Amino acid sequence: MSLWMYVPRTLADQPPAQPFSLPMPIVYERVADRVHWEYHVVTVDLREEPPLDDERLSALGAEGWLLAGAVQPPSAREAAHTIVYYFVRQA
Question: How far, in whole angstroms, is CA 88 from its chain's centroid?
Fold first, then answer.
């Protein structure tokens, strides 16, 4: 009695193939002009004036300024009474 079993050939059983490579595509693109930005910092001492309200923020927005962030300084002494607003706009 004989037992026959089919064993599929693997890639290791194949003769080595010739290496090939695809041509490297070359892409040309026009680089746009660099964007230049302007920055504006407003520091508000809460002992002397209130935080920026909607009216003041809208006025800055009308000039093209975008509020990027508002933080309190890391110094514990200043943080209790100071807010720093950071604005940015395209030059």
Answer: 15
Question: Considering Cα of 12, then 14, then 18, then 22, what sign does the dihedral take?
Answer: negative
Rounded Cα distance between 84 and 69, Å, is 8
Helices (H), the chain: 54-62, 76-79
What are the backbone dihedrals phi and psi of residue 25, each rounded to the nearest 5 degrees, phi first? -70, 145
Rounded CA gap, 63 and 69, in Å? 17
pTM (two decimals): 0.61
Q: Could you tell me if residue 60 is left (phi over 0), alpha (psi between -120 and 50 degrees) or otherwise beta?
A: alpha
Distance (Å, whole) CA 60 – CA 58: 5
Q: Is the pLDDT of residue 28 over 90?
A: no
- Our measurement of the distance from residue 76's CA atom to the centroid of its chain's CA atoms, rounded to an integer in Å, reads 30
